[in-house]
Specification:
Elements lengths: L1 H16 L2 E4 L4 E6 L8 H14 L5 H10 L9 E6 L2 E6 L6 E6 L8 E4 L2 H4 L3
Parallel strand pairs: 2-4
Antiparallel strand pairs: 1-6, 2-5, 3-4
Length: 126
């Protein structure tokens, strides 16, 4: 009886340890508060994404938040103000009383889910 329990436990542990977890790194949350006269929101959104991609080229994920917070001026222009508040990049265009758009900035060119071993046992064979 004891041997059966041990055998079943070992099989169960092997099945659990062999799985993989897919991680998708979300990116940085942002809010854009557009000017009350703004008709098209896409150009500023595209500029924001392109600036983020340029800034994060070659940066490891652990350093991305620090790099972002130290380079907020790259996102600013004549009528655009930027600040970080509670982990969210907040952007104001003009008076900021127009439409509000929320989303996440991500490195789209390298936005592939990583598959990592779920346990040390599976990592021994990789």
């Amino acid at each position: 009886m004891m041997k059966k329990c041990v055998l079943l436990t070992m099989v169960w542990l092997c099945l659990l340890s062999g799985g993989a977890v897919a991680r998708n790194k979300e990116g940085v949350a942002y809010e854009i508060h557009f000017d009350s006269d703004t008709i098209q929101t896409y150009p500023l959104q595209q500029q924001l994404q392109e600036t983020y991609e340029q800034l994060m080229q070659g940066i490891q994920e652990e350093s991305s938040y620090t790099v972002l917070t130290h380079n907020l001026s790259m996102f600013e222009s004549e009528d655009v103000r930027v600040r970080m508040q509670q982990g969210t990049l907040q952007v104001w265009q003009g008076d900021g009383k127009g439409a509000v758009v929320k989303g996440k900035l991500a490195k789209w060119k390298a936005c592939v889910a990583e598959v990592e071993p779920r346990s040390w046992f599976a990592s021994l064979f990789s």
